[in-house]
Design goal:
Elements: E1 2-3, H1 12-18, E2 32-35, E3 45-50, E4 54-61, E5 64-69, H2 80-87, E6 93-102, H3 110-114, E7 123-134, E8 137-138, H4 144-154, E9 162-164, E10 168-169, H5 172-182, E11 186-191, E12 201-209, E13 212-224, E14 233-240, E15 243-250, H6 256-266, E16 270-271, E17 295-310, E18 312-313, E19 319-320, E20 323-327, E21 379-383, E22 386-390, E23 396-398, E24 403-404, H7 405-419, E25 427-432, E26 442-444, E27 457-461, E28 467-472, H8 476-484, E29 491-492, E30 505-511, H9 517-533, E31 539-542, E32 548-553, H10 560-577, E33 582-583, H11 588-591, E34 595-598, E35 625-626, H12 645-652, H13 666-677
Helix pairs in contact: 1-4, 7-8, 9-10
Length: 678
């Protein structure tokens, strides 16, 4: 099997030069394919995958983008990642294709597409298979093979979310067999010399389905007397000769949650009279269900459309064994007509044979994208099996930087894999900023009776007899629940609940007063010199505020008291090197404006902003781990922020993971310090 274009040389530039000039077409609808009953071989035809998604026309003209459904409904907001990608293009064109969500094997999943709300719901892809207009030239009267040759030469391919649909000069019979084996919906056959006929179901484009499927109108629903479900089955119809005809009912394929969502859509459409001319018997027995449960029908205005799969159609036009596949809000009810298979031999004459080749491609992007879409103000998302509600999403948290709550949630969702190792199993001090960085804030440590049922908590009594139940970091759900409380920054303990009195690391906090950041850098480098001299590994990060944090791995082998004692030894040695602008005084007044070398953070329950945490500071800064060779004059806190942190992490990875690695030998380090520094 060969891709079209491999055998026949077509010069796209020459074709374009001869194409007629025109303004960009408006209000057009796509060309549709006729359903036939079996695959065929013919060398005047080419074959494509029949994708299970939403048909879409994309209009790109002078950076103005419009993505429309087959009924001219806008997809601009619904499928915003595709819209944003097209907006970056420097071409003017009208594209025909299919928007879909791919699973890990590259197969489209209509249910996932129907439920798609943001990039967290799956890999959204726009497969483009035709070009109708390009740079002032109307291409619709050109043969298909020429249109696709031009498309192949001009379509940008720098982002895998917009793809050129593969076209094969093939054995249709073999290609169909391969599609069936791969679990595809079917194949499309297109005559190579076919022109583009808008808003018409053409016999020069044919579709052959692996499974029988049909869009249907929801005309009502039933509810059995003994059921606790929202409804028992949907009553379905299609239009024939302008009249709604009953095609049966479907009672499988939807979850309780989907049913509840559907009932909300039904409520404003309830009517007292059946929308069918002839009242159907919704309790009619069949040979499969000779004694169906009695059910009462609730009728609806015939405005909603869904899709069902079925095994066959009975003599009286009713679907056998239907299964609900999803709602179709891209289709108008009045356009839903019964699809009738045409015998293939009435359309195609010739038969040939070639070999099979796979035509699907799995998603290439493995990293997480955004959790929340850019439109809805309130969104409910399922995170690790738990439903979380996110509200007031356009509320601005960082006014100077125009960063919203939505941006914060999306950041923490994307950074989760990097930040969670430093939150997992650690009690958290919740520093809440419900009004944003300039509003009032408060610490909340005790979450007893306030955390969700699924949250893990840790009871702890401090040295002063105070009992508190701390939230424990577990996974994305706990991280995003904290963010939903207005926790702009994440403040985990140094120790885990498995060993609460034994920290995983020792921290030296460089806390400047009125010093330049270059002086903070100098103090950090002096600290590293001391630690290098005694063979102690160290890891540094910006605080995201004004200072820097230097971590030393302990692997929970020592107590907080021992950790603090070691930190004190280190900062004393650093202070001896740069006494002119550093201080070991805890009281601010006693420091006399000097930089505080803080070793007292190493105590039970004390916290600082963790690695990759956002900070409530202008610039939307991030506490960012660094390579030591990045710590040099000219480094700025603002260099690391919500806008660039994810890209940096993708490039650099987690520079801090050694902090949770092998701990130092404290006794050996102290002994070395005595021998080196006296």
């Amino acid at each position: 099997m060969s891709e079209v274009g491999e055998e026949t040389e077509v010069d796209p530039k020459a074709i374009l030069k001869k194409a007629p000039k025109s303004t960009i077409p408006k209000n057009i609808k796509p060309m549709l394919a006729t359903l036939v009953n079996e695959p065929f071989d013919d060398d005047e035809w080419q074959y494509e995958v029949k994708w299970d998604g939403y048909r879409a026309l994309a209009f790109i003209n002078k950076s103005k983008i419009n993505i429309l459904s087959r009924n001219n409904k806008s997809f601009n907001e619904k499928f915003y990642p595709i819209y944003d990608l097209l907006k970056e293009w420097k071409i003017n064109a009208v594209l025909d294709g299919e928007i879909l969500v791919l699973n890990e094997k590259g197969i489209s999943n209509f249910g996932a597409l129907q439920n798609w709300r943001s990039e967290a719901d799956g890999e959204l892809v726009f497969y483009v298979f035709d070009l109708l207009w390009y740079e002032g030239k109307n291409l619709m009267n050109l043969p298909l093979v020429q249109r696709q040759a031009i498309l192949n030469s001009v379509l940008p391919t720098d982002d895998d979310r917009i793809r050129l649909g593969k076209v094969f000069k093939a054995s249709g019979i073999d290609f169909f067999a391969a599609a069936e084996k791969m679990g595809l919906e079917g194949i499309i056959a297109k005559k190579i010399n076919s022109t583009y006929a808008t808003d018409r179901r053409s016999k020069e484009w044919l579709k052959i389905k692996v499974h029988k499927r049909q869009e249907v109108v929801i005309a009502g629903y039933t509810k059995n007397e003994d059921t606790s479900k929202s409804f028992s089955s949907l009553l379905l119809g299609v239009y024939e000769k302008g009249k709604l005809q009953y095609v049966g009912k479907v009672g499988t394929g939807f979850s309780d949650k989907v049913q509840k969502e559907m009932v909300k859509q039904f409520e404003p459409l309830v009517i007292s009279k059946s929308p069918f001319d002839e009242l159907p018997d919704v309790n009619k027995p069949s040979r499969f269900r000779p004694n169906p449960p009695k059910a009462k029908a609730t009728w609806l205005k015939p405005e909603l459309v869904c899709e069902v799969a079925f095994t066959e159609v009975t003599d009286d036009g009713v679907f056998r064994h239907p299964s609900f596949q999803g709602m179709r809000d891209d289709k108008k009810a009045k356009d839903v007509k019964r699809e009738k298979e045409v015998a293939t031999e009435t359309v195609v004459d010739k038969v040939t044979k070639t070999q099979h080749k796979t035509a699907i491609k799995p998603p290439s992007e493995k990293g997480k994208k955004t959790l929340l879409n850019p439109k809805d103000e309130t969104q409910v998302r399922k995170i690790k099996g738990h439903e979380l509600k996110f509200t007031n999403l356009s509320k601005v948290y960082w006014p100077e930087d125009k960063v919203t709550k939505r941006d914060m949630f999306n950041y923490y969702y994307q950074v989760a894999e990097y930040i969670l190792p430093y939150l997992k199993d650690r009690p958290q001090s919740l520093n809440r900023f419900p009004g944003g960085i300039h509003g009032p804030s408060f610490y909340q440590k005790d979450v007893k009776g306030k955390a969700p049922d699924w949250a893990k908590t840790f009871p702890y009594e401090n040295g002063e007899g105070e009992k508190k139940e701390y939230l424990v970091g577990t996974d994305e759900a706990s991280l995003l629940w904290m963010a939903s409380l207005g926790c702009i920054e994440m403040n985990p303990w140094f120790s885990r609940v498995q060993s609460p009195d034994n920290p995983d690391y020792c921290v030296i906090d460089l806390d400047p007063d009125k010093h330049t950041f270059d002086q903070v850098v100098e103090a950090a480098l002096e600290t590293k010199k001391v630690l290098d001299a005694i063979d102690v590994p160290s890891f540094c990060k910006t605080s995201g505020s004004t200072g820097m944090h230097i971590y030393i791995p302990l692997n929970a082998k020592y107590s907080y008291e021992q950790s603090q004692m070691f930190a004190k030894i280190v900062v004393n040695l650093v202070h001896e090197q740069i006494p002119e602008y550093t201080s070991l005084e805890r009281m601010i007044s006693a420091r006399k404006g000097k930089m505080y070398l803080d070793f007292l953070q190493n105590r039970p329950g004390a916290t600082i902003a963790g690695p990759y945490s956002l900070r409530p500071k202008t610039g939307a800064t991030v506490s960012m781990p660094l390579h030591w060779d990045e710590v040099k004059p000219g480094l700025k806190m603002i260099d690391f922020n919500i806008f660039n942190a994810i890209d940096r992490l993708k490039a650099e990875g987690d520079l801090f993971k050694g902090v949770l690695g092998k701990g130092i030998d404290l006794k050996k380090a102290i002994s070395k310090a005595k021998s080196v520094f006296g």
